[in-house]
Amino acid sequence: MYKLPKSYYKNTNTIFLAEDLLGKVLFTKKDGLVTAGRIVETEAYFGIMDKASHAFNGKRTSRTKPMYQEGGVAYVYLCYGIHHLLNVVTSGADDPQCVLIRAIEPLTGIDVMASRRSVPPEKPIFSNGPGSAAKALGIDSSFNGAFLTDDSIWIEDQGLKYSPAQIGRAARIGIAYAQEHAALPLRFFIKESKYARK
Predict the structure, then answer these.
(1) How many Cβ atoms sit within 10 Å of the Cβ of residue 115?
(2) Which of 18, 56, 72, 188 is most deeply packed, by most CB within 10 A?
(3) pLDDT digit string, tens, across residues 151-166
(4) How far apart are CA 125 and CA 195, in angstroms?
């Protein structure tokens, strides 16, 4: 059991990382309260060549600034003005790749997460979308740009490994605008988890 080091996130193969993050445990500490969930669904975004990426064609805005940092920071943005979504920035500086955390299985501080969600934790909707997962963990814009080796947000390897047969792969969700890139099978999920979208 150990906190993933900064070097882990510098891997330029973001598609590999999106799959490898499955089973790792995402922690947050907010207002002195620690919550955590096992990552069971992710999506890979491969940077300036990816029509679904906020950084497509090298686009740089104040919002996308964290994406251009060296891997190992959180990129949190507001979707539809409602939901905060957490992305793990990967690769090197000026190579804006990232992994979207789409779903978690609640593990630690479940009562705290339940108060944030107002949904029973046994229900899949508790944390089975990127907005729901972030809300359960208390992730908001204050985490944007945070180092994932910090004491406020981090990811641990607790030794759980899934076999290839346990992992599903499918097209990303909600990116019809990305034309042919919308169909790329860059979403990874644990087949047996009720919190992952199949």
Answers:
(1) 11
(2) 18
(3) 999 999 999 999 999 9
(4) 7
Tokens representing residue 80 in the block: 């539809």
Model's pTM, two decimal places? 0.97
DSSP 118-182: TS-TTSGGGTSSHHHHHHHTT--GGGTT-BTBSSSEEEEE-S----GGGEEEE--SS-GGGGGGG
| Domains of the chain, each with CATH number or no CATH | 2-190 (3.10.300.10)
For tokens 């990382």, the residue is 17
Burial status of residue 189 (CB atoms within 10 A of its CB: 0-12, 13-18, 19 or more): buried
> Distance between CA 152 and CA 175 in Å, rounded?
30
